[in-house]
Specification:
The protein is α+β, with helices and mostly antiparallel strands. The chain has helices spanning 28-37, 60-68, 148-159, 162-165, 186-191, 237-240; strands at 6-14, 42-49, 72-79, 87-93, 97-104, 114-124, 133-143, 173-178, 216-221, 224-231, 246-252. The chain starts with 5 loop residues before the first strand and ends with a strand.
Length: 253
């Protein structure tokens, strides 16, 4: 176990408000089925609407979290269509979350965009150790814009935010989500110079029914490594949203 190595599975997924990319049908159970197949410890979602159609007045994130058995969760709307139909980013976790904050990444008159920040305390158990200890992992769940210049400005804004200034280079950090990275170049251009590591192969996630673009990404920095990163190959995932989810297995060192 090398001093108590901990493996973490993260799913990052633009759920498109639980509306199918092809059939345009709202089906929250389909989205839950895709995510639950992978039994993740942490789920980073984009385009989560305020209320669930199944339970009027109940937050969609609560319906999803209860169904997955992930009871630590944060949701902050970025876009307010009107009072009842706002949507934004969400984090669901097996372990407690703290210090959650919405980082505004909107550029000028463009559509509102943001990153949901949270700290998660991950238990590390050594063999034969009943107590163990916790490690802090910093999570940034991002949804970037549609133009190349906008995305670069947004990432620069994120990477110079005060939350990053307080994190040492050795501390585990995960930046993931819908980066709208049409050409798969943001890692090389911006993330790698900032000390982040991704994967050489960029899994394609869009459009879900026949993916050709690596719009969604995951990067790490500090005492955490990517063991594997893949897009879902489930048939149901090709229908549930217009994006495929990314499934990441990470090792916390």
């Amino acid at each position: 176990e090398r001093g108590g190595i901990m493996n973490i599975r993260i799913v990052t997924y633009n759920i498109h408000k639980c509306i199918g990319g092809v059939d345009r049908r709202y089906d929250l159970a389909r989205v839950v089925g895709v995510i639950s197949h992978y039994q993740p410890d942490l789920v980073l979602l984009q385009e989560v609407v305020r209320y669930s159609r199944e339970s009027t007045g109940v937050l969609q994130i609560d319906v999803i979290g209860d169904a997955l058995g992930l009871f630590h969760r944060e949701w902050i709307p970025n876009v307010r269509v009107h009072q009842s139909r706002g949507y934004g980013n969400a984090i669901l976790s097996r372990w407690p979350l703290s210090d959650s904050d919405n980082i505004n990444l909107t550029i000028g008159p463009k559509k509102r965009r943001g990153a949901l920040y949270s700290r998660v305390r991950v238990p590390q158990h050594r063999r034969g150790d009943s107590g163990g200890r916790n490690r802090t992992v910093h999570l940034f769940n991002v949804h970037l814009g549609l133009s190349g210049i906008e995305r670069r400005l947004q990432l620069k804004k994120l990477l110079t935010h005060e939350h990053f200034n307080r994190i040492t280079q050795a501390t585990p950090v995960v930046v993931a989500g819908d980066l709208n990275d049409v050409w798969g170049t943001l890692g090389r251009q911006l993330m790698r110079p900032a000390g982040f590591r991704g994967t050489d192969r960029k899994p394609r996630t869009f459009p879900a029914y026949a993916p050709v673009r690596p719009l969604d990404s995951l990067y790490v920095r500090g005492g955490i490594e990517i063991v594997s990163l893949m897009s879902s190959r489930l048939a149901i995932a090709r229908q549930a949203s217009d994006h495929l989810p990314l499934v990441a297995d990470l090792t916390l060192l």
